[in-house]
Amino acid sequence: MAQDPFSPSDLPPELLDVEVDTRPLAMVLLSRSVRPFLLLAGAVIFVVILRATPPPGLGRSGEAALAVFALCVVYWITGALPLVVTGLLAIVLLGMCGVMTPRAAYSLFGSEAVFFVLAAFMLAAAVNYRGLGRRVAIIVFARYGRTPHGLLRAIYLLSALMSFLIPEHAVAAIVFPIVLNLVNSLETAARRSRYPTALFLAMAWGTNIGGIATLLGGARGPLALGILTESTGATISFIHWSLATLPLVALLLVVGYFVLVAWFADEPVDIERSIAAISQRRAQLGRISFEETAVAVVLGVTVVAWSLFSDKLGLAGIAILAVVALFVFDLLSWQEVEGHVNWGIILMYGGAIALGSALERSKAAAFMAQAMARHTKSPTLLLALLSLLAELLGESLSHSAVVASMVPVGLGLAGHYGMDVRALTLAITLPAGLTYIMPVSTPANALAYSGGYLRTRDLIVPGTILILASWLGLNLMMHLYWPLIGLSPFSSAH
Amino acid sequence: MTADISKNPALLKLDLALRGVNASAPAGVQWLEMLLDGEIWARARINPDSPLRLEHGAQGDVIHDGDSEVVVRVTAPPEYARRLTQRGVAIGKIATVHGAYAVVELNGGCGVSMPGRVCALCRGRELTEKPGEIWAIQDVIEALGAIFKEGAAEFVLFQLGYLPGDDAGLKLLLPYIETVRRHFDTIVAVSMHPPADPRAIERAYASGVDALSYNLEAADAESLQRHFPGRARFIGRNRYFHSLSHAAKVFPGGAVACELTVGLSPEEKIREAIAELAEIGVLPILSLDPAGAADRSAVEFGPLYGYLFDEVVKAGLNMSWARDLSHVITPVEARYFVVNAPQLPVLLHNLARNRIGALATRSLAKLRRRLRVRYVRASFDSSRL
Fold first, then answer.
1. N or C: more exposed end of chain B, with fewer CB within 10 A?
2. B382 to A184: CB separation less than 8 angstroms, yes or no
3. What domains can you pick out in chain B, each with its CATH number?
4. Is the Cβ of B367 closer than 8 Å to some Cβ of chain A?
């Protein structure tokens, strides 16, 4: 067939945003009408727990905390209310039900984790708006993407590495338009092959796997850290977090690449037009600007400072100083910050951290842990089950909802079994971020699906392989590697 | 099937398409739109050599064919056609009425049966030629407003010729769709080339397009190559079927149609294409190229149209979306070529035609869109947390 005159066009982003649910209409109708019932179910559970006689070992405030927690878990998991609104509801209810004073509840908004996330988003905004991320991506793709597998590797590894430094959603937002352009530039035959699927998946999987490497990759890490610190006083340093995760990340990147190639990039495709397109964009970049260099320097210094001085200065302190530097050098405007930062996250995190703290202080977490421990005597098995549950829930729920729902319970279990609360926090938080199949699970997956080439049914087998690899890899690391770096799950050193 | 045009309005419609009508018409008028028995819209070119004579008698407008005569209702020259928009563009140039549709041709439109010409892409040689006229949205809204006010049409059909881009011009069309949706409570249909990017189909549905057609016209690959070398070269028959199949999953049942033109391809190939389309959930509709079928009579085509009806019934497709089109024979009209045709499709079709049925159709279409369309942004926002 001759050259296609329907050459790629630059559609406004809102037009890339639509998907049509083609399930039978009855099923669509059912899924859309279930919300009122879910809202009612949450409210009924809340009232029933609140009005019941407290069981032995649980005080009135613990029972109220449990009622609020149950309500929030129902709404977070089912999405009956936006996550942010549920987080706000938690704060209000904690005060109204007498779990803690309203003043104490609202003061938990001031958690260091919240400010760390906020500053991390601002840093990502600078990387995005000053064009540094786009430049790096284009240069890497142009340099290493000369063959179909080379391009796949470049997208995969760059997405992973960038997620070490900036939040996953920012990485996806930078890489996705370039991948879309590359796919649109492919010859029609190549576009009809599975290769475009492989490129979008390389972006999504690379971003998700890389996102667990540091505290910067996803906001769930700081959230878990916030709940851990506010509830138990323990913490995990920036470098310690990364030391714990990097071997797992390396292992999963290798497994993920082989799965990608075996399932989606096993046939020869012609990518000459994509190479030409990326070369053209490379040529249009020109020389690196002062702003791009300055943002790179600020980001580099910040990461070094997090690694060396976070114990003294605090993660949030260093992050906010970095943001101040960006404003001092005119590398970021407040308008850009407002456009880039998801303010809902701050509100949701405040609520989730307050709820976690309330469960711990009112002994409700310990009560839940004891109840669960009655069914499982083996802490090893419990850890394996918790990590598997977090992995599976992370596929279909917001990662933050999974962390907010499971970490408080996990901390109670850690206390019950005398386990290291830090290891348990990691055992829940890391798998919650390792998602490979569903579009709603991460921003990278959502964007990859919006490319129009991914279908859930095509991802079930390869995605399941990766889920299992992630779970087995994590459990291996927990038992064999983490004790070597002072994170033994079965020692209550902290 | 009866071969008497006074008893078979679909046969008369076919005959009019084939031979035209001998009628006295004001200067410059080349086509007549008329309503036949059974509420069937027909379109006939003025042809002084046609044996079908149109006369105005005591009963009204009557078509004579030998001894047979049929009362029809020829639509009066519309008032709106003489008016100008506020910006001074003749409304008759912006939109024309075919059957119950106000047809807006953007970029000149494309197609053998309705605009009567194909676009630059179809010809395949002149892809660089300037685009045809693309009307300002304000003018289009004014024109449609005038047409609806006069009661000359019920629905809107946008006809799009070749436009560059992966979405085959949808980006240009969307603002028109959205504005029409804001101003009028009507059914919006679009006829265009199939896009290279299948997501354009979802976007079309989400933006408010109710019915969609990618008109292959030439049923088989050889005829496509012969009549539309550009379409064969740049789009290919496979993309038509791929896009139509995808659209059939996105749009309501029966709302995706594909026009095949009798006279361009061998009859056997048309039958194969009809079966193929019905199988993937696409409603085949048949237009006629008089030049390609000049040596045959309308009756000879009867079995083909009967086959159209049978295949659509067999596939269980809803026939009520494709209706009141004057330039094609729709499946529900093709029932006149079948002996003892099942009455359920006709009943449903008639239900959809009356005032309450039409309102219900529009309301259900809106509800369906509301239920089915989701925005990836919602997932993105949620997953970001």
1. N
2. no
3. 9-74 (no CATH), 80-369 (3.80.30.10)
4. no
